[in-house]
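Input sequence (389 aa), recorded before submission:
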Amino acid sequence: MAIKEEEETQQYSNKRSILIREDLEYSAQKIFTYSAIGLTAIGIYVYPLTENSGSESSPPESNLNQSELDPVAKFQQRQARTEQLNNYGNPTTQIITYTLIATAVVGIFVYHYVKRALKGFYEENLKQTIETKTAYYENLLKENIAFSQNTQKIAIALGTANSSEQQRLLVPRKKLVNQIIKTKRNNMTINYKYIALGILVSYLGLYVYNLTQMPQESKSKRAMRLLTEYNARRFGDKLQQKLKDKENMLNTNLNNSNPTPLFQYPQQNYTCDKCGGEFQKTITYSPAQNKQELDKQPTYCSNCAEPNLLVPVKIQRSKKVKAKRNPVAYYQCMSACCQQGISPKRITQIAHECKHNSVGLLQERTNEIRKLNEAYQQIGICLTNLLQP
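Predicted structure, token format:
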């Protein structure tokens, strides 16, 4: 809050100084312009009078009537007046000329003096503004670094939770911390943009002020203008680079607060990237999505893998295999053997053979049925022929 109040006070003083400078410059220019216009008007009005007075003034012998003088006297009188003006000049014209020259010199001196004083006053205020904003930026940068360190500690504390209660509350706490980090990052980014905009506007004001100077500027003014433009570009580039570095650091912290899960892959030959041990045909844990990416991703053994990062293995339910049922011939054979009084062991053996030979038995029975049908058809044909009249 104190920094914001200081910044607002500094902005108010800068605006006030700019208004005072503009008013003084406008007043000085107005006084100088009005003085020059007034003296010029006086000179234009007085000059014909001085010419007339000069024409009326003549040497003592010119008091006679001009009509009474002969041409030679008129020529001599005109020549004498010309010599008098060349030697001494018209007093009124000389006074007005000297007055105009003195007024112009004094006006130019006053104008440049006021301009120099205002320029020093403006540059001093601009220097104070830049120092204040630079200090505010450094404080904001320190606060951002401290917040990033605290964020890392919170993420580490959340990532090392081992108890069941902490494991149950891990997901909502991470979401809350991520939301806080996101909000803080957005606020800091907006503050950085406002600071950069304020500094660039300050340099832009100085640049516009230099552009409003007289076109015929001296070497010192030109050097000062070029130095100011170079500092503005250099400071702006550094500020943009710092903003980019800070955004990258915040993105890195966010990625660290969301650790990648570890998948389980059995029967693998690998080297643990954490302890350096070599294992053969054992379970490995890796963030790889499939076995083809194991060479590109780090692998860990069961001792080095963090338990809270392990992805539970989905239990694949095996398909139920229906039991093979014995054919009908198996039970028919067993029933026939029981009726004949064969021993149980012999019955089982005969029924098993009958099961495997049931296809052949069915084929033989089919052939017998077909032969019987043919015989019955022939008997029927013979009886029909005999019974016909």
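Checked by second reader. Residues 171 and 224 are 59 Å apart (CA to CA).
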